[in-house]
Design brief:
By secondary structure, this protein is of the alpha/beta class. It contains 10 helices and 12 strands. The radius of gyration is 29 Å and the shape is elongated.
């Protein structure tokens, strides 16, 4: 009777005093609601006051029930954020979520929060499959990044690194994770600087910079596993002023394919620790 309509969907929040078996009682109420409301709906039911003596968690019960599983799942996630640290346990059955929650209904915030949860869970102001204006896909981001780079092949990278007449310092930088290096191997002598530390290690203005990051014209050649993440990383270096940064087309897999020297094989289980140390002469990883 107190349900509100949001875009034709009925939502409601209802508090009742604690019963002998809160969870069983509220599930019974939820079944009645589903029987009497065949149309789309989403309800939040909770017990307040002293928890039921039969409660194993010494907490009250919150039940979210609805006719659409996606509505219920959205409400569960939103409720978890609204009641941080107060949900003791949670049981999710698709179209019904039951949670043991501390002090529900003890303040006006709880009711307002639940109404907000239900309202945001059922409204759909935009088509979820239509990207927001101004957003770009991953492929568009990479295409835009590569348009700013003079990318190099593995052989060109090798030639730059070994050219004694090259006018500026050049470095080969492995931005892959430790798991990727352990699985695929690496290039001996390359700097290991995982992606989350890359800008900080090469920004001459940053306290965490490497000793070699003392000029903005460094030729930084970044590589990842397959040449995708490295393009975005190299453009990020451009943003801090490293205009000569670029990446290897095809990444480490391309380096392996042309069989250039310096390749380190994945470590065996027995010698994993020792082999990993050989991936770089200078490590730029975070602690």
């Amino acid at each position: 009777m107190k349900a509100r309509a949001v875009e034709g969907i009925k939502i409601s929040v209802y508090f009742t005093f604690s019963k002998r078996d809160d969870d069983c009682f509220l599930r019974h109420v939820a079944n009645i609601i589903r029987t009497r409301l065949p149309t789309r709906h989403l309800f939040a039911l909770a017990t307040t006051g002293a928890p039921s003596p039969s409660s194993l968690t010494n907490a009250n019960t919150l039940v979210i029930t609805g006719s659409d599983d996606d509505d219920v799942q959205s409400a569960v996630l939103l409720a978890s954020s609204k009641f941080l640290g107060r949900i003791v346990s949670l049981t999710n059955d698709g179209d019904l979520m039951s949670a043991a929650i501390e002090d529900i209904g003890a303040s006006s915030y709880d009711s307002a929060a639940l109404w907000d949860v239900l309202h945001k869970s059922v409204r759909a102001p935009l088509d979820r499959l239509v990207p927001p204006p101004g957003s770009r896909s991953t492929l568009q981001l990479i295409d835009a990044a590569r348009a700013k780079l003079q990318r190099v092949t593995p052989q060109q990278a090798w030639d730059i690194l070994h050219d004694p007449t090259h006018p500026i310092p050049a470095f080969l930088v492995d931005i892959r994770s430790a798991a990727e290096r352990a699985r695929s191997g690496g290039i001996h002598g390359s700097l290991i600087i995982e992606r989350n530390m890359l800008e900080r290690r090469f920004d001459p203005r940053c306290e965490d910079k490497l000793a070699i990051a003392d000029r903005y014209d460094l030729r930084i050649i970044v590589y990842c596993e397959d040449g995708w993440a490295s393009s975005l990383a190299a453009v990020s270096l451009h943003e801090i002023g490293m205009w000569n940064a670029t990446d290897i087309i095809g990444g480490f897999q391309a380096w392996k394919a042309v069989r250039l020297p310096g390749q380190v094989r994945p470590p065996s289980t027995e010698s994993k620790s020792a082999s990993l140390e050989g991936f770089s002469q200078i490590s730029g990883e975070s602690d």
